[in-house]
Each structure stands twice: as C-alpha cells, then as structure tokens.
Amino acid sequence: MPHGKPAGVRCVQLDADERCKVFGKPERPAFCAGLRPSAEMCGESREQALAWLNQLELATAPSV
Known about the structure:
Elements: H1 30-34, H2 39-42, H3 46-60
C-alpha cells in the first residue's frame, strides 16, 4: 500500500489466516516494524488481540 493503509481497510499483506506476508522482510513498512506489542495489546487470546487492533483502527479513522 504505497500511500499507507487507511483505517478500516484490510491490509493487502494479510494472508487468509490474518498473518502478515512481509513480517521480518525488508519491505515491511516502518510503521508495522515499529509497532511494539504489549500485554494490553495481545490480551489472553488471538481474538482479544484482534479486538485491540480493531479499537486502534477505529480510534485512528478519519472523521467523515
């Protein structure tokens, strides 16, 4: 996504299992590489982690 990923738009680098296809590769965007997981972000399950990321998406979405 050369111009960044807008909030609410699925990243084109996610595979069918919601895993990043460029994780650990040099072409991975700086924003993604700089995102540092925390206990709050990860929660106790994959579902909790995805819910946290969804909240982040909503909080950073542009106003319409």
